[in-house]
């Protein structure tokens, strides 16, 4: 005989469920806001999309046997790689295909009606026979095509297009952090950006200002690059010289230049140069106002693809160095070490006491942290610097910039680093649990408990409605009218 759970126990269970659900949901929202409000919004949005997109479609159709594939194909050479491409008409009776070349199976379970064969063992001026077998979805039926022969080309060379720098331009940004005066901002540190038709190209940049500013960065896989001058550029006209170098072929280079001008604060308000000169003549004896805002930057006509030999004076860079990090993986809130190796130095700067600046820059060119050291540099020296990462720096891709300041030179290089989420629990075998992962799982449990709570509320609302309905209709007066009881007293 089955026993029913007492109503009192059900109410206790529902009450515990409400308390636990609300506590878990408040914990999820609170920890998510502390971690990142953007994470909370994106996590809830993804969960809503997963529930809304969960649909079930049932199709029932009897299919016939597969049709024999009619194979056609071509061969071509792309950047030194031979590719044989075969295709055949689509067939709704065929669920998957098997590809064979000269009787050797290349692919099974293929669902598309085409296949690209570009493995490394394809030889020049060689014929290959391809056979396609179609498998049906209803039973063991299959159909085999007639072999189709493809002959590879007699030669296949890597022909790269001429290297080209395009879209070199200047972007005025707010003053970068002044490392010598942390509470002030520098006024004249412009940001440049551009593109090159070579992925991961090495970009060398040079500006002749009150000092010679030399920098190096790397384009991304799409060829885009950006660079911010690590030192102030003096007022007046200047030229940015850009040289891009293929990382796989040092002889393959391209150069461009960009003329720009940093105007003085006196003409910031739109005054003409002649008016400005007259004003200076009348105010020679007055103290000049020191600008407190970033000086305006005027972009002059762009001169693309100009050889570096057109510089007024050949620049001999007195220093070359490389940078690397101690760890392949860098985690949030954890320290890492940057190594600066002096690879070449002019004898005049041997044992020179130089300033070395370290900057961590995000994708919006914001300096997240910076540090400056005074170090004695010499040929072959390796300088180590411990970088402390703040916990509020999110995961993602950043630029680590190292600048070495000599008396008349600013030489900088930067590398891309990736900061990953700090794992909370390492289960081994490459499986780790991170803080965002744990929050997302807590959120999933909380949302399902909330849905269950809605079901509880619906059931209890229904029971309460029946209770009120009974109070309204099951009364002594109604029972007397039905003749079920008598309210008259018997003498």
Structure explained in plain terms:
The protein is an alpha+beta fold. It has four domains: 1-50 and 429-483, no CATH class; 72-151, Sandwich (Immunoglobulin-like); 167-269 and 293-315, Immunoglobulin-like (Sandwich); 318-420, Immunoglobulin-like, CATH 2.60.40. Helices cover 20% and strands 38% of the residues. The protein contains five helices and 26 strands. The strands form six sheets. Strands 11, 12, 14, 15, 16, 18, 20, 21, 23 and 24 form a ten-stranded mixed beta sheet that branches. Strands 3, 4, 6, 7 and 8 form a five-stranded antiparallel beta sheet that branches.
Q: How do the helices and strands line up, and which of them pair or pack?
A:
Elements: H1 7-35, H2 37-52, E1 72-78, E2 81-87, E3 94-101, E4 104-110, E5 114-117, E6 127-136, E7 142-144, E8 148-151, E9 165-171, E10 191-196, E11 202-208, E12 212-218, E13 224-228, E14 236-246, E15 249-262, H3 273-282, E16 297-303, E17 319-325, E18 330-331, E19 336-345, E20 352-361, E21 367-377, E22 382-387, E23 396-405, E24 409-420, E25 423-426, E26 432-434, H4 435-473, H5 476-481
Parallel strand pairs: 12-24, 18-24
Antiparallel strand pairs: 1-2, 2-5, 3-4, 3-6, 6-7, 6-8, 9-10, 10-13, 11-12, 11-14, 14-15, 15-16, 17-19, 19-22, 20-21, 20-23, 23-24, 25-26
Helix pairs in contact: 1-2, 1-4, 2-4
- What is the 3D form? flat
Mean pLDDT across the residues is 77
Uncertain parts: 174-186, 267-295, 299-314
| Rg (C-alpha, Å) | 37 Å
The CATH architecture of the largest domain comes to Sandwich
- Tell me the strand percentage band: 35-45%
Count of distinct strands: 26
Helix content, binned percent:
10-25%
Distance between the termini: 47 Å
Task: Tell me the structural class.
Answer: alpha+beta
- How many helical elements? 5
> How would you characterize the largest beta sheet?
10 strands, mixed
Domain module count: 4
């Amino acid at each position: 005989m089955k026993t029913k759970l007492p109503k009192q126990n059900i109410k206790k269970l529902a009450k515990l469920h409400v308390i636990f659900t609300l506590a878990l949901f408040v914990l999820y929202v609170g920890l998510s806001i502390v971690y990142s409000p953007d994470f909370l919004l994106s996590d809830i949005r993804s969960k809503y999309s997963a529930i809304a997109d969960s649909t079930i479609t049932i199709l029932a159709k009897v299919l016939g046997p597969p049709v024999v594939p009619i194979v056609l194909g071509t061969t071509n050479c792309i950047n030194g790689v031979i590719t044989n491409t075969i295709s055949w008409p689509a067939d709704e009776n065929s669920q998957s295909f098997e590809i064979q070349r000269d009787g050797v199976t290349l692919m099974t379970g293929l669902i598309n009606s085409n296949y690209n064969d570009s493995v490394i063992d394809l030889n020049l001026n060689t014929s290959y026979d391809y056979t396609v077998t179609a498998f049906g979805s209803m039973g063991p039926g299959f159909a085999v095509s007639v072999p189709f022969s493809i002959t590879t080309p007699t030669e296949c060379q890597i022909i790269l297009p001429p290297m080209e720098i395009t879209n070199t331009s200047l972007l005025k940004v707010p003053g970068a952090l002044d490392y010598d005066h942390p509470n002030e901002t520098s006024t004249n540190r412009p940001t440049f950006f551009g593109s090159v038709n070579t992925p991961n190209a090495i970009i060398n940049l040079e500006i002749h200002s009150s000092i010679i500013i030399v920098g190096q960065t790397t384009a991304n896989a799409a060829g885009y690059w950006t660079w911010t001058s690590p030192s102030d550029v003096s007022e007046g006209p200047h030229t940015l010289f850009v040289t891009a170098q293929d990382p796989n072929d040092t002889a393959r280079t391209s150069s461009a230049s960009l003329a720009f001008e940093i105007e003085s604060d006196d003409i910031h308000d739109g005054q003409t140069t002649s008016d400005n000169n007259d004003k200076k003549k009348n105010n020679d004896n007055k103290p000049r106002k020191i600008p407190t805002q970033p000086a305006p930057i005027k972009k002059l006509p762009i001169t693309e693809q100009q050889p570096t030999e057109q510089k007024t004076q050949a620049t001999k860079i007195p220093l070359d160095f490389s940078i690397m990090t101690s760890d392949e993986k860098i985690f949030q809130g954890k320290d890492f070490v940057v190594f600066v190796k002096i690879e070449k130095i002019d004898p005049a700067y041997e044992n020179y006491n130089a300033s070395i600046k370290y900057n961590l820059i995000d994708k919006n060119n914001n300096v997240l942290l910076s540090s400056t050291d005074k170090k004695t540099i010499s040929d072959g020296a390796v300088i180590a610097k411990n970088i402390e990462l703040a916990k509020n720096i999110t995961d993602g891709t950043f630029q680590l910039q190292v600048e070495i300041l000599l008396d008349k030179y600013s030489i900088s290089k930067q590398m891309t680093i990736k900061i990953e989420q700090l794992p909370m629990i390492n289960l081994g075998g490459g499986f780790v649990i991170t803080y965002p992962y744990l929050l997302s799982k807590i959120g999933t449990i909380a949302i399902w408990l909330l849905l269950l709570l809605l079901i509880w509320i619906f059931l209890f609302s229904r029971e309460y409605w029946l209770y009120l309905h009974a109070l309204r209709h099951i009364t002594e007066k109604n029972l007397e009218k039905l003749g079920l009881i008598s309210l008259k007293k018997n003498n």
